[in-house]
């Protein structure tokens, strides 16, 4: 049972009519062995921190609870999973069908965070279309530290837009706020 995945859903409803909806999907890999493509060479130490995306979502909701934005609906999920080795782990070259019906070929079992979050992104997309959320934006938050460090160096965060977010200049706005 301790290896079963869990979803922790969080929500904040504003006191006034929502003018936008922010949705956060956080990667919560409680421990990452690398799966069947096991991490080798002693780099498994510290992989309990692979849940920091989900922790960031929890922290964000603590901040939202304190600030109580009047016109912003905030939804989120912490996608909690353990990337372990065993009879239920997935392996390289396995094909997994996502909630959205997209087939994903596993090329690296250490990319488990994407698999943990993808169905929740699809879930919220379905909800947006079904319930007609006001000005929705979906954010995925993950610790992709190895790749981030390779791309921009240590001690930096990365934000990347998809097409609609790029048109709205979401990354630029967040980067400016950070500066």
UniProtKB/TrEMBL annotation:
One Pfam family hit: Peptidase_M17
GO cellular component, one term: cytoplasm
Keyword Protease: yes
GO-annotated biological processes: proteolysis
Record key words, sorted: Aminopeptidase, Hydrolase, Protease
PROSITE patterns, per the entry: CYTOSOL_AP (PS00631)
Family that this chain belongs to: Belongs to the peptidase M17 family.
Protein name, per record: Cytosol aminopeptidase domain-containing protein
Organism: Oppiella nova
